[in-house]
Structures are given as C-alpha cells and as structure tokens.
C-alpha cells in the first residue's frame, strides 16, 4: 500500500503531546516543528489519524515542498508537483489557506491565486484539456511558507478535528475540544482518579476525559473530506478503522468525573452535550458555585478553564474569583490543580507559585497552563491472593 508523508497541525506548545499520540498509533515520526508533527503512513493511517487523534487540528497529505523567493518560483514549484496523482479530472480544487512566516512571499491572497493558476496549468498537461468543470469531489489545499520553504498539502479532514460532533450547544467562550484533550493528557490523571471541573461551561473537559476513559475515538461519529477520495482511500479503509475503534470502547468502566457551573442553564447544556457524546452516564453535572467546591475524597484533580480577560469585566471581580479558587483548592487535601487562563496574575491571587507553567497559544490569545501538583497517592497494596 502506498505510503504518504502526513502532517498533523496542532496548538503551538502541544507538539510533544501530539507526537506521543501518533507514536502510540504505531506510526513513525519524521519531523516535529512549531505547531505541527509529520509522520509516515498509508491510507489506513489517514483514517486512523483523523478518527483517533485527540489533539490534532487536521490531517494533511504532503504533495510536495520546494524553495521559493519570488512568485515565478512559487508558480513553477507548484506546477511541478504531481497533482494528477491526487486530483481527478473533475475534481474541485483550490488553495483554501496560505500562511507565511519570515518569507519574502507574504500575501495570502496572491499566493492562493498564483498557486491555483499553477495547478490548472499542471493538470491541463496531465488531462489534455484546457478547461475543468470542477463539479466533482473537493480537494482543498493548504500551504505553509516558512523562511521561503514552501510546503503544499491536501486537507483530508475538512472541518477541524476539534469538531467532534457532540457540542451542539456551547458557552460564550468554550475551550476547543482538542485543546482540552491535550491539557488533560499533560496531567497524570487516569480513568480511576477523580476529576472535577468547577467551571465546566458546556462540559468540554469532563466530556473529553470521559471519552478517554471509555476509549471512545474522538472522530468515530463524524465525516471527513477524504472519505470521498475513493481513488486514494477506499470505503473499506474507513470502515475497518471505525470497526477497530468501536471494539476498543468500554462503557462499563467506573469513573469519578464531575462538572460544576454556577449557571444551571449551562449545566443542562453540558448534560445534553455529554449525552450526544455517549458519555452522559460517566459524568455527574451539578449547578454549584466555586465557593462551595469541596470533596471528601483525596488525590483528586481540578482541571479547568476559569473566566479571564473579556469573559469577566471588572478586574477586582477577577482577582476575587482567583482568590476564591485558591481558598477552595487549599481546602482540598492532597489534590492537584491544572488551570488554563489568560490572567497573568493568577498565581498571585491563588496564593501559590505553580509547580509548572506552560505557555500555550489558544488561537491568537496567549494563555498559561498553571500546574499545581499535589502528592502522589500511595501504591495500592497487593492482596495476598494476587501474590
């Protein structure tokens, strides 16, 4: 089966998490760069990555790479790529997105226009025609130019992978599903441990955690652009991978995942989303103020995205909120707190310096993932029957 050079973009700062995911799927990493991880794989890999990766934004097939400092070089480099190996004569093709960093070519619209013309000229020769109806399947192209090095790729995904399909209703400032999953993966949390999100909003953290606990692949119930590329990836490839993923689901697992929010309407929205994701019975949602956060069990995890910036108007109100978070966290014996926020004074009002602090760009917003680590639980004693 033909091997492809695949590219999986992700949030800046979370490349290591995605690399681990891809490695665990069984694929060889070829490159790790800012905001993306590259790996080798066949048609099944395209399916498995789209359906199974929790932290990627999409899966791209690299068509080729070349150096370009002028629009003439961009045109000729694009024209020389093997477009006929991917795009049929009736395919609808266009450059959906172009980005440029530290390069002489920087105008996205000009890059898109010139590359489209070059693709047309290339396919004219391949298909011996001067005109394309473009009434077939879609083949969106994405282009990255970094220091005059051009990477051209086909987008196999379509809507970003963070769109799992379960979040039909959301809060005003929801955290993206793939970002939430990545942040959970950066913690030591496991399915048999307690997880509480006291600012759950539409339920993303608890739902992503429950899907991990039950082994539910994030993309198992959604569609992808490449499903219609039957000359590259057959329907049986998609079916086989989905069947594998369904075999891995374990809904009998016992979980201790809870989501709280001050707004009862948001709690109801979270319940609806969790049911849509198939994990409603694995999560306990409740309308509760952060001031009432308490738990009788030890060694739990708070993983949350509290309000910050535009989400809360008055700075005094913001300071008071984070002071309350600190008070309730200190009252929880042996717990850990993992919190993503754009509030730079979070540590000051929580009253403790974070053990770790990772800078993460949530879109164009710089945020911080503060990690306040509690003690590790004691090892469970091995019963004599197990010895």
H/I helix tally: 10
CATH homologous superfamily heading of the largest domain: Vaccinia Virus protein VP39
Instruction: Please bin the fraction of helical residues.
Output: 25-40%
**N-C termini distance:** 47 Å
Percentage of residues in strands: 15-25%
Strand order of the largest sheet: 2-3-1-4-7-6-5
| Uncertain stretches | 381-387
Q: Which structural class should the secondary elements be placed in?
A: alpha/beta
CA-based gyration radius = 23 Å
Taken together, the total number of domains comes to 2
Order of helices and strands: EHEEHEHEHEEHEHHEHEEHEHEE
Highlighted features:
single chain; Rossmann fold; alpha/beta; 30% helix; 24% strand; 387 residues; 7-stranded mixed β-sheet; 2 domains; VC0802-like
Structure description:
This protein is an alpha/beta fold and about 375 residues long. It folds into two domains: about 150 residues, VC0802-like, CATH 3.30.2130.30; about 190 residues, 3-Layer(aba) Sandwich (Rossmann fold), CATH 3.40.50. It is about 30% helix and about 25% strand. It is elongated, with a radius of gyration of 23 Å. The two termini are about 45 Å apart. The C terminus is likely disordered.
